[in-house]
Amino acid sequence: MGSLSHELPPLQLKDLKVKIQDTCLVLPAQKTERRSMFLSNIDQVLNFSVETVHFFPQNKDFPPHVVAEKLRSALAEILVTYDYLAGRLKVSSSTGRLEIDCNGAGAVFVVASSECTLDEIGDLVYPNPAFQELIVKSFHGLLLDEDDHHHDQPLCILQVTSFKCGGFTMGLSTNHATFDGLSFKTFLDNLAALASDKPLAVIPCNDRHLLAARSPPRVTFDHPEMIKLNMEDSNSSAPIFDSSPEDLDFKIFRLTSKDIARLKEKAMASGGRTHDVRYITGFNVVTAHVWRCKALSLGHDRERESRMLYAVDIRPRLNPPLPASYSGNAVLSAYTTAKCKELEEGPFSKLVELVSEGAKRITDEYARSAIDWGEVYKGFPHGEFLVSSWWRLGFTKVEYPWGRPRYSCPVVYHRKDIILLFPDIDDDNGVNVLVSLPSKEMDKFQSLFHELLLEA
């Protein structure tokens, strides 16, 4: 049965005692063309860093110093194909749009060591603030933060950190404007191939004009999942969701593959004879369960409307479809809306169906309309909260010459308006749900999570 991974915060190492051994810029292995790279309206609103850490056990054939050299060489090679990763963001003087100056300035490569062992870290699934040490935040005195997104800010940082046990981590920070989750997985596959002295696993499609707005733009749908930007405060680095100054508790709720099967059975049983079993997927039932718990944890206003967002890959939904190898951001926010009384009283199958309708809504024309909406109005996704799923991205399936990662995870910061789904370390079909909420809301969420799961 689903459970908290920890009823209380676990004993964690708060300091991994990481020391930087070497920091350098890695330039493309061959000269690349100087150009300005167009960014789509989807890319434009994702100007922030995404950090991931990939944990590897000891491999006697590949000690950490060998791994570091192979990754440094592979990074130089991959910057030829992904030339924009060696570039810098800038605002076009002619259009006022954010774009990438593909100037070959380079990516940051760091070699570090920790005085700890991987086993001393404990549960890798539990987001440890100390994981921040596994991705460098400064380079030659320049702070690599989000206060300045232009000029000298590198778009890619790779850090190899060795541990006393012989294991190591690969920490990667990339600007979200460069990749979505699927294209980042392709990037990892390509990096691993080059580190193995093999050709690229996939030739990426780097043409962001494929998702350019139509001329003239045509907004043919209402888009309640978007909110217009206050142009008086307009800046290209405005957040999609506002950070909350509140003190937040955070907990991980683990759903096993058996729990998910039970949620599917619950959706089937409550749907009568006319329900469509095609929408009863693992993602839809987990998301419906989380939506119900999150919405009802906020209070007792049964007439309040709850709007949940989640990302949908539009590559196969366009006509013609985008190449599966498209390397930019090809995701839009699907939304679903219901009153709290519907979430509390309605059959579970109905909630699952509502979740599925969010994705079904995104046809070719709807996606083009959403992109054009961004051209006309300038704005950001807007909802009560966003479910961000790393569950099926497959980062732990990447085949490096030293083996697959033991675990891969985002370096998360706690936000009450974002709920993360990411894979379990022991159960391939299980999922971890990371929730950050004020204390009273968390108590209610936790109670609902278990009560409603027991009903399954």
Automatic annotation (TrEMBL):
Gene3D superfamilies referenced in this protein's UniProt entry, alphabetically: Chloramphenicol acetyltransferase-like domain
Domain of life: Eukaryota
InterPro entries in alphabetical order: CAT-like_dom_sf, Plant_Fungal_Acyltransferase
UniProt similarity note: Belongs to the plant acyltransferase family.
Descriptive protein name: Omega-hydroxypalmitate O-feruloyl transferase
The species this protein was found in: Xanthoceras sorbifolium
